[in-house]
Amino acid sequence: MNIKADEVASLKALDKEHVWHHITPTAAAKAGVPLFVRGEGLQLWDSEGKEYLDASSGGVWVTNVGYGRREIADAVHEQLCALNYFSGAAATKPGALFADALIDKMPGMSRVYYSSSGSEANEKAFKMVRQIAAKHYGGKKHKILFRERDYHGTTITALSASGQNERREQFGPFTPGFVEFPHCLEYRNQYGNDVDYGVRAAEAMEEVILREGADTVGAVILEPITAGGGIILPPQGYWEKIREICDKYNVLLIIDEVVCGLGRTGAWFGYQHYGIKPDMVTMAKGVASGYAPISCTVTTEKVYELLSEAEGDHLGFFRDISTFGGCTSAPAAALKNMEILENENLIENSARMGERLLAGFETLKAKHPVIGDVRGKGLFCGIEMVADRETREPVHESVSAAVAGRCKELGLLIGRTNRSIAGYNNVLNFAPALVITEAQVDRIIEVLDQAFSEVCA
Ligand SMILES: Cc1ncc(COP(=O)(O)O)c(C=O)c1O
After folding, report:
1. How far is the CA of 282 from the centre of ligand 1 (A)?
2. Do 356 and 247 lie in a common domain?
3. How many A from CA of 60 to the centre of ligand 1?
4. Nearest atom in ligand 1 to 150's CA
5. Deepest in the core among 18, 133, 337, 342, taking most CB within 10 A?
6. Hey, which of 61, 156, 232, 258 would you mutate to test ligand 1's pocket, going by the most ligand atoms within 8 Å of its Cβ?
7. For 168-187, what is the mean pLDDT?
8. How far is the CA of 85 from the centre of ligand 1 (A)?
9. What does the mean pLDDT of the chain come to?
């Protein structure tokens, strides 16, 4: 859909007058935000006709199969004409089919609970933990642990479980019963060089369990690879130790795959790189690539059984609903999205193109001292910028913002840690759609090279 030139000015004026933009400082909104009108693959066009290469998948890592997928639009259209909605208390054709297709990709998992945002999927998981505590542990095992630098969503309780101090600032008081433990970013090792960092960082979780009392801790929620907190890959041995500690203290392991799920990191799910078995998995963004809002909380059969009522216990089942979790367009879009990922081998492409992107970052690192660390898995990669490589002092966020800004002027959209962690908003992030080609990867490197040269000379 192209917007006529004379419409653009009026739309921009209406937008400025009435739309309250997400996570945008007021001054930036007043200056005007872009008006995007069309997308195809990784390419995006604004109302001025300027073309961008989008390495952010819609700003927040959503459009895994790329823009302009008519086959998803057609599947949604067909489903909406047949039946648009009935509450999730009933069965629907796309709901049943997508749940089956999803479970097929997640050995060991069994049940799919539908809702419509990542925050909501995590809220469902938290409610399950709380209800399991109430039903089976006299309410005592109700605490939920989360990790410094992870993010789990925007609602007050999801923020209560988020380890990003700037995200939380001014929104308290928070929901009680959520407890933080230290991050596992080896580049910023807190324990000294003579430790086995992965094991030591996992033991930091055990220390918190013991301090709180294992009989009070019901679950831990973790991102498989931390996203907005700075693209943090788990160090060697970390996940194995985390699972071992969870088993030791009977703590449920919730893995937040809202970003990493559906191929982003070169596997169907991020946790599958590490061979661990979760108790619950949440997902959202790439599930339907933004063609419809959908999120899922997936559990083992054991969790489902813990929340099944005994005879005569009329409150004993999971008494939860998500109105829009019943929209049939969502699983219809998700089914087609999954079909595309499979038919076009996009998971493999994510792994392959991710390696090329990281190799490109390494060449940039050899050239630009402002690059302190590069890291990533599949098509989810980051560059940590430093003022001094020796001391690893982070650059001021205005510097990473300037690099991202220059990339945008040059027609490349990238992301960056933004109002997340005080003093450490210094990581650029890259999550292009999984359909990316070698030439497009090379273009990202070329533009970045120019931006670093101009901004950080
Ligand atoms: C890891 C993670 N979990 C949860 C969320 C929240 O998802 P939503 O914005 O769909 O509520 C996000 C959003 O960026 C996220 O990055």
Report:
1. 10
2. no
3. 9
4. 1
5. 337
6. 258
7. 98
8. 25
9. 97
Determine the structural domain holding residue 218 and report its residue range: 71-343
Considering only residues 379 and 310, tell me which one the structure prediction assigns the higher pLDDT: 379
Q: Is the pTM of this model over 0.90?
A: yes
Give the residue whose CA is nearest to atom 8 of ligand 1: 118
* Ligand 1 atom at shortest distance from the alpha carbon of 228: 16
Within a domain: residue 410? yes
Which ligand 1 atom lies nearest to the CA of residue 155? 11
Using DSSP, state whether 113 is helix, strand or coil. Answer: strand
> Which one-letter amino acid corresponds to residue 352?
R
| 371 and 297 assigned to the same domain | no
317 and 395 belong to one structural domain: no
**305 and 375 part of one domain:** no
> What residue type is assigned to position 165 of the chain?
N
For residues 333 and 350, membership in a common domain is answered with no
- Cα three-residue angle 4-9-11, rounded to 5 degrees: 80
Going by C-beta distance under 8 Å and a sequence separation of 6 or more, which residues neighbour residue 281? 106, 109, 254, 255, 257, 261, 269, 271, 297, 298, 299
- The mean-pLDDT minimum among 1-15, 66-80, 241-255, 353-367 falls in 1-15
Using a 6 Å cutoff on CB, does residue 226 contact ligand 1? no
Task: Give me the pLDDT at residue 457, please.
Answer: 83
Strands of the 412-413 sheet, one edge to the other: 36-40, 43-46, 51-54, 412-413
